[in-house]
């Protein structure tokens, strides 16, 4: 199976270096390249690649801004000429980073990680409207950034015009409305509990009967979510309760 890759990098020299490395691997197929964030966004929307080689430090908009623009983020390997950016990108849960100029040995190591992650993903990125459990989203809240797999998120919650995302012990804000988020989520595992909250049913630990026909859900992360009366009937049917 071919691994479809795109390069988003403002340096022509760096793009050419990556292309020469990609040519050495039959399993890699370069489906496009872009020299800036806006062109990169259009390219990714068109090609839905498996793998993104992304320069962090670009003029006008940087690599992190591109990830914020995407509803679904491909497997990402950052490229950078600056050590401080490389260290940061590691903290942001990128699969890997490559310091420019990229060595053949280091490229091969990154590709091994890509193959391992793809092997663990049951579903490839697609042009479908809905995300899958294995889809990644990018979240930037202040100076902190994360690449998060949809299946690792336990719940979403309205905070003004934004949405709080719950995963592990983190609760950052995503700069999209809850309705925008809901449109993309896989319906088999995510459920709109009330106007303010969407929960991942895989993270429900206990269901408690509540007042006026409502339910209260106790989540594995310790959070409690009250399901509206109307949604409680739907939830019971969905979960065969």
TrEMBL record:
Keyword Phosphoprotein assigned to the entry: answer is yes
Q: Which residues are modified to 4-aspartylphosphate? A: 55
Any one GO MF term held by the record is: DNA binding
Alphabetically sorted, this entry's keywords are: DNA-binding, Phosphoprotein
Query: Is DNA-binding given among the entry's keywords?
Result: yes
Alphabetical list of InterPro entries matching this protein: CheY-like_superfamily, LytR-like, LytTR_DNA-bd_dom, Sig_transdc_resp-reg_receiver
Q: Per its UniProt record, what Pfam families does this chain match?
A: LytTR (PF04397), Response_reg (PF00072)
Query: Ranges for the HTH LytTR-type domain?
Result: 137-241
Q: Which residue range or ranges hold the Response regulatory domain?
A: 4-115
Q: What is this protein called?
A: DNA-binding response regulator
- The species this protein was found in: Flagellimonas nanhaiensis
């Amino acid at each position: 199976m071919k691994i479809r890759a795109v390069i988003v990098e403002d340096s022509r020299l760096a793009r050419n270096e990556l292309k020469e490395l990609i040519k050495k691997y039959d399993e890699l197929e370069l489906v496009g390249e872009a020299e800036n964030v806006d062109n990169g966004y259009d390219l990714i929307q068109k090609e839905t690649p498996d793998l993104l080689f992304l320069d962090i430090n670009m003029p006008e908009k940087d690599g992190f801004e591109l990830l914020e623009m995407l509803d679904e983020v491909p497997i990402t390997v950052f490229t950078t000429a600056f050590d401080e950016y490389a260290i940061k990108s590691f903290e942001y849960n990128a699969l890997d980073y490559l310091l420019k100029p990229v060595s053949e040995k280091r490229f091969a190591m990154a590709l091994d990680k890509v193959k391992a992650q793809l092997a663990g993903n049951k579903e490839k990125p697609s042009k479908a409207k809905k995300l899958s459990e294995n889809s990644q989203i990018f979240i930037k809240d202040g100076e902190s950034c994360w690449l998060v797999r949809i299946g690792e998120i336990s719940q979403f919650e309205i905070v003004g015009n934004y949405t709080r995302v719950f995963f592990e012990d983190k609760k950052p804000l995503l700069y999209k409305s809850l309705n925008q988020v809901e449109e993309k989520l896989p319906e088999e595992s995510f459920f709109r509990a009330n106007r303010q909250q969407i929960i991942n049913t895989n993270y429900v630990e206990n269901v408690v009967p509540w007042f006026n026909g409502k339910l209260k859900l106790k989540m594995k992360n310790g959070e409690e979510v009250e399901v509206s009366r109307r949604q409680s009937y739907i939830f019971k049917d969905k979960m065969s309760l």
